[in-house]
Amino acid sequence: MKPNNIRKIWNEGQCVLNGWLSIANSFSAEIMAEQGYDSIGIDLQHGIVDYQAAVSMLQGMRASSVVPLVRVPWLDPAHIMKALDAGAYGVICPMINSRAEAEALVSYIRYPPKGVRSFGPSRAAISAGANYGQEADDQVVCFAMIETAEAMRNLEEIVSTPGLDGVYIGPADLTIGLTGMRYPTGFDREEPKMIEAIKRILDRAHAAGIRAALHCGTPTYAARAAEWGFDMVTVSNDVRLLSGAAAASVKAFRDAVAPTKSIRGPDPVNGNKTAY
Question: What is the pTM of this model?
Answer without folding.
Answer: 0.93
